[in-house]
UniProtKB/TrEMBL annotation:
<keyword id="KW-0677">Repeat</keyword>
<feature type="binding site">
    <location>
        <position position="404"/>
    </location>
    <ligand>
        <name>ATP</name>
    </ligand>
</feature>
<keyword id="KW-0067">ATP-binding</keyword>
<comment type="similarity">
    <text>Belongs to the fic family.</text>
</comment>
<keyword id="KW-0547">Nucleotide-binding</keyword>
<feature type="active site">
    <location>
        <position position="360"/>
    </location>
</feature>
<dbReference type="InterPro" id="IPR040198">
    <property type="entry name" value="Fido_containing"/>
</dbReference>
<feature type="domain" description="Fido">
    <location>
        <begin position="282"/>
        <end position="417"/>
    </location>
</feature>
<feature type="binding site">
    <location>
        <begin position="364"/>
        <end position="371"/>
    </location>
    <ligand>
        <name>ATP</name>
    </ligand>
</feature>
<feature type="binding site">
    <location>
        <begin position="313"/>
        <end position="316"/>
    </location>
    <ligand>
        <name>ATP</name>
    </ligand>
</feature>
<dbReference type="InterPro" id="IPR036597">
    <property type="entry name" value="Fido-like_dom_sf"/>
</dbReference>
<protein>
    <recommendedName>
        <fullName>protein adenylyltransferase</fullName>
        <ecNumber>2.7.7.108</ecNumber>
    </recommendedName>
</protein>
<feature type="site" description="Important for autoinhibition of adenylyltransferase activity">
    <location>
        <position position="231"/>
    </location>
</feature>
<feature type="binding site">
    <location>
        <begin position="396"/>
        <end position="397"/>
    </location>
    <ligand>
        <name>ATP</name>
    </ligand>
</feature>
<keyword id="KW-1133">Transmembrane helix</keyword>
<keyword id="KW-0548">Nucleotidyltransferase</keyword>
<feature type="glycosylation site" description="N-linked (GlcNAc...) asparagine">
    <location>
        <position position="272"/>
    </location>
</feature>
């Protein structure tokens, strides 16, 4: 066994995790610790299938290769919140160029020296330099996490997770993660509770309230605007509003951009008027129908069709086209599973979004379709549809990428924040007592933000 961890240590950790599990008792905590126990199990060379609360399988004498995570298809962050049986194509990690190894080690060493001397700015830069050269370096990930933990425990917790994803035998990262994950879980839960309180306030606003109708109308335009702008559409909010209201074209803008707006608007109406009014599960056909509207005016031949070719999305290689149909079937099975329905709706909606963009069933329009599906799930649970602002594009994609390397929690957190922003905006617009501060979604110069981002 390559790990230096003794069997006693393992048992100690596993007993502790059971104790923690019983103290905190939540399903979500259970999932995470089931994942953590699995890491320990793997360290012991045992099997992966392992339930929380059961004892760990005894270590086998045969040693298991280091880098277990490389051939492990289920990672802690992925295991969390129903990602357990999710197929993950593990991409070969780019290997560090041998001539850079020395520089990485030196940067980490200097970072630690700077840290000891209280030169925090310098330490930050050096840690980042080391990780820019070698993003998979477990020691640097763990050390940077320890350095950040006091000021940003969420980020530290993510870094420990990444360290373990790269080296499942990293004892210090495991111990650190055991400590932070409990606190982080409490933070995440308290944010969801705050969101639910706001949602309850929002549900008290009478449906016929003029203010509410105006707010919803406004958010409808904002939604069409942001969800298309994020994909590179250059029409401004005002131009887009005018196209929807008057059906007239805007001079100097392409037909394609107009058609994206018309498609988005028709998809939103389909969701609002058809899918929202219907009971029952979401089917593959519903997803294709949403997409048929999103892309129907732009690319009628691809609209509503599963892609027939391989696509590449930055560093993410979605599943081959031959797998997509089956993956979609499994996806809708998951949508109606007890596991999915036991989740908090914000977590469920975020994961549904993540999984659909991961499969990437279409040639184009995957992001828009996934955001619509996410909103359908939220609306069915009594939450307003949310907006990912074009100005958040970078943060949004970064969170998705963190999901792709094995930690889905940052993405769920991001979607939770969007949900809270939307509730803040709607409550601000619809309640007399302005006990809520001016929300982020209002009074923002969207157009300026959109203009600063080059179209592609
Ligand atoms: C993983 O971390 C442990 C320390 O916890 C270390 O002994 C081992 O060499 C590391 N493995 C790799 C492949 O870096
Ligand atoms: C959404 O549906 C409701 C109820 O069916 C309807 O009153 C409202 O006008 C619809 N909104 C849009 C934008 O279609
Ligand atoms: Mg696109």
């Amino acid at each position: 066994m390559s790990s230096k961890m003794s069997n006693d240590d393992n048992q100690h950790l596993s007993v502790k995790s059971s104790v923690i599990f019983f103290v905190f008792g939540g399903v979500v905590v259970a999932c995470l610790f089931s994942a953590m126990s699995r890491v320990v199990t793997v360290l012991e060379g045992g099997t992966q299938s392992h339930q929380v609360g059961t004892t760990l399988s005894p270590p086998t004498t045969e040693s298991k290769a280091v880098g277990v995570m490389g051939d492990l298809e289920h990672w802690p962050g992925m295991d969390y919140h129903g990602m357990r049986d999710w197929p993950v194509t593990v991409r070969n990690k780019p290997l560090l160029r041998p001539d850079l190894k020395g520089e990485v080690l030196a940067a980490l060493h200097q970072a630690l020296v700077a840290k000891v001397h209280g030169k925090n700015e310098k330490a930050h830069k050096l840690f980042q330099h080391a990780l820019a050269l070698d993003p998979n370096y477990a020691d640097a990930l763990n050390e940077y996490g320890e350095f950040l933990e006091e000021e940003d425990i969420l980020r530290a917790d993510h870094l420990y997770t990444c360290a373990l994803l790269n080296n499942a035998s990293h004892v210090r990262a495991l111990i650190n993660l055991r400590r932070t994950s409990i606190i982080v879980e409490e933070i995440d839960q308290s944010i969801l509770m705050r969101i639910d309180n706001k949602r309850n306030d929002f549900l008290k606003v009478p449906a016929h309230s003029r203010a509410l109708q105006r707010a919803q109308q406004e958010m409808y335009y904002q939604h069409v605007y942001h969800t298309t702008a994020i994909e590179g559409n250059t029409l401004s909010l005002e131009q887009m509003r005018s196209i929807i209201e008057t059906g007239m074209a805007v001079t100097g803008k392409s037909i394609l951009e107009h058609n994206e707006i018309i498609g988005m608007s028709s998809a939103l109406q389909y969701i609002n008027n058809t899918l929202m009014g219907r009971f029952g599960d979401i089917s593959v056909r519903d997803i294709l129908e949403i997409h048929r509207r999103v892309l129907g005016h732009v690319d009628p031949l691809e609209a509503g069709q599963i892609r027939a070719t391989q696509v590449f999305v930055g560093s993410h290689v979605p599943p081959p086209p031959s797998d997509v149909e089956l993956l979609l079937e499994e996806f809708v099975e998951w949508l109606k599973s007890d596991e999915a329905n036991a989740m908090h709706p914000v977590q469920f909606a975020a994961l549904a979004h993540y999984k659909l963009v991961y499969i990437h069933p279409f040639l184009d329009g995957n992001g828009r379709t996934s955001r619509l599906l996410m909103n359908l799930i939220l609306m069915r649970a009594g939450y307003p549809p949310i907006i990912v602002k074009v100005g958040q594009r970078h943060e949004y994609y970064e969170a998705i990428k963190k999901g792709n390397v094995g930690d889905i929690r940052p993405f769920i957190r991001f979607i939770a924040r969007c949900t809270e922003n939307m509730l803040d905006a709607l409550l601000w617009l619809t309640t007399e007592s302005s006990s809520y501060a001016l929300p982020e979604l209002i009074g923002n110069s969207y157009e300026k933000i959109a203009e600063s981002i080059p179209a592609y």
